[in-house]
Design a protein that fits this description.
There is one protein chain. By secondary structure, the chain is mostly beta strands. The protein has strands at 3-7, 10-12, 18-25, 34-39, 46-51, 57-59, 67-72, 77-82, 91-97, 111-112, 116-120. The strands form two sheets. Strands 2, 4, 5, 6, 9, 10 and 11 form a seven-stranded mixed β-sheet that branches. Strands 1-3-8-7 form a four-stranded antiparallel β-sheet, with no helix packed on it. Strand 7 (67-72) and strand 8 form a beta hairpin. The termini are far apart. 33% of the residues are buried.
Length: 122
């Protein structure tokens, strides 16, 4: 059974930082690209960042320069470092598995976790 579990969310002030963790199991992690997406209340699902099996990183323009995605194939985990957070970053963040053999994906993933809430507020 494929599982993706996010953690690390919380309440942070504008300009602050958080690290989100995605722990996976049930598939051969090193061969799959992983994507992070988010959804704010009343807004559509938004792609945030992806990392390929070969460690190439992709970022949405809205987070480029502020967020960093990394993966650890030995632990089957993906981290998303969030810096210089803004109120518009408030959302539920989900990590998701791309389809096998896809170089990367955005919102067209095949499975995702339950999400972790990030709230940016003073």
């Amino acid at each position: 059974e494929v599982r993706l579990v996010e953690s690390g969310g919380g309440l942070v002030q504008p300009g602050g930082s958080l690290t989100l963790h995605c722990t996976t199991s049930g598939f051969n992690f090193k061969y799959f690209a992983i994507t992070w997406v988010r959804q704010a209340p009343g807004k559509p699902l938004e792609w945030v960042s992806s990392i390929t099996s070969g460690n190439t990183q992709w970022y949405a323009d809205s987070v480029k320069g502020r967020f960093t995605i990394t993966r650890d194939n030995a632990k089957s985990t993906v981290d998303l470092q969030l810096n210089d957070l803004r109120s518009e970053d408030t959302a539920i963040y989900y990590c998701a598995q791309c389809e096998q053999y896809r170089v990367y994906c955005r919102t067209d993933y095949i499975d995702r976790g339950q999400g972790t809430q990030v709230t940016v507020s003073s």
